[in-house]
Amino acid sequence: MEVKTKLLVSLYVVIALLALLTTWIHLPAYLGNGIVEANIQFWKDALFNANPAGKFLVIDILFLAFTCNVWMIVEGRRLGVKYIYAYVVGGVLIAISVAFPLFMAARELKRASYESPLELYKIKAIDVLALFCLFLVAVFAAIAIL
């Protein structure tokens, strides 16, 4: 593996760790009532109890997350990255700022393993369904806070 690939993979992992630490430091306030209630209260605060700037950022990140998920699934299928949905689910349950750099690290490692041109890939029906559901979340959240 080339040095630039190692450096890039390391950078992506460091970004994911920093994102995990700096996002999850804010979650203890929500965890006292269990995971379901914590999620409900978190999204109420993020979508409905936030000021206009906060709402803007939430919607912006939801659409960015959707775009990242489209790209992760398409690129993951194209390269044959394993466990694509671990990154998608991780983006939903942990943070897209953690899951996306981890996917990018896995992508770089996969790309480094190829010696010949990549073959054609196939998007599966489950991919389209998952992306449609994530798109609906972003759209409904955007409409709900108007």
TrEMBL record:
Transmembrane segments: 7-27, 53-72, 84-105, 125-145
Entry coiled-coil feature ranges: none
Source organism superkingdom: Bacteria
This protein's UniProt keywords: Membrane, Transmembrane, Transmembrane helix
Magnesium among keywords: no
Keyword Secreted tagged: no
Pfam families in the record: DUF2834
Protein name: DUF2834 domain-containing protein
Protein source organism: Zhongshania aquimaris
